[in-house]
Amino acid sequence: MPYHARQKAPQAPLEPDMRFNQLDLNLLVALDALLTERSITAAGVRLHLTQSAMSSGLARLRAYFEDDLLVQVGRKMVPTPLGESLAAPVRRILIDIQTTVAAKPAFDPSTSNRRFTLMMSDYVASVLMSGVARRAAALAPGVGFELLNNNESAPTDFIDRAEVDFLIMPRDFLSPDHPFEPLFVDDYVCIVSPDNPAVADTLTLDQYLALGHVVVQFSRGHVPAIDEWFLSQHGHTRRIEVIAMNFNLLPQFIIGTHRIATVHRRMAEYYRRFIPLKVLAPPLSIPPLTEAVQWHRSADRDPGSLWLRKLLQETATHAGGAV
């Protein structure tokens, strides 16, 4: 379980528990939250503490370090130079402590009640993680999964802070600071409604550009790499009729219409089992992508992490196209 999920402090002022050179080590948890959130209120929510408890903790930290650590600038709190310099080592200390405390000589999936937190796109959740969860239900009935969407502005930060167990993303976007393994390669296809009179069994570039398109935009101004690549490499202008907020909506917005969508092949094959789709080769050569799984380096030899990494690989291979 990632570090952040284990922070369950009482609704009371921070109390001395363990000290090192006169520093209450519990305050390091508060300092980490404050430097991450840069807000007393948000840090309190993160640690399940009241705002007054967090304010008290910050006051004690300032007294110990003889520095403001964070200062109010407008509506934001900004770290001082000392506060900024403490962020990374404090996080490493807490991760090392958590890794040491959570270390187990073995992992028995049949009896474990461990909960793994994974960050991925809804596309990966559908074509890979749904199968992983089904297999885990038989192999590890007590193991649970929390899935987070990776449409954050900097998903690799969650691995850097060990706030998730695994990050699954295209390999080119992973952090260079932590280990990873390729899971599968996927390419792209076009999908249309089977009753679309404008498309036969093949698709020309003129037809492609003439049709109304359904595309994904995760947040305002943030589009997937495939769409960025399409515009930058080819300079063609598509007539976009629907902008959806996730990959799973793309097939739903073409059924019964003359629209088209460019999607991952695995997504198209996944949805073709449930809804009628015509799958066509795109009229342009689009480079494939490699989805990979990454974990914090501190968990490299963790037995539970090793078990789930193996299950991810086996499921990807069973689904076809594994690396």
Describe what is shown at a glance:
With 323 residues, the chain is of the alpha/beta class.
Write the layout of secondary structure elements.
Blueprint: E1 19-20, E2 23-24, H1 26-37, H2 40-47, H3 51-65, E3 70-73, E4 76-79, H4 81-102, E5 115-120, H5 122-139, E6 144-149, H6 156-160, E7 166-170, E8 180-186, E9 188-192, H7 205-210, E10 212-216, H8 225-234, E11 239-244, E12 260-264, H9 265-272, E13 278-280, E14 289-294, H10 303-319
Parallel strand pairs: 5-6, 5-7, 10-11
Antiparallel strand pairs: 1-2, 3-4, 7-14, 8-14, 9-12, 9-13
Overview of the molecule:
It contains 10 helices and 14 strands. The chain has 323 residues and is α/β, with parallel strands linked by helices. The protein folds into 3 domains: 100 residues, Winged helix-like DNA-binding domain superfamily/Winged helix DNA-binding domain (Arc Repressor Mutant, subunit A, Orthogonal Bundle), CATH 1.10.10.10; 103 residues, Periplasmic binding protein-like II (D-Maltodextrin-Binding Protein, domain 2, 3-Layer(aba) Sandwich); 93 residues, D-Maltodextrin-Binding Protein, domain 2 (3-Layer(aba) Sandwich). The chain has a 5-stranded mixed sheet. A 3-stranded antiparallel sheet has the order 12-9-13, covered by helices on one side. A two-stranded antiparallel ribbon has the order 1-2. A hairpin with a 2-residue loop joins strand 3 and strand 4. Helix 1 crosses helix 2, helix 1 packs across helix 4 and helix 2 crosses helix 3. About 5% of the residues have low confidence.
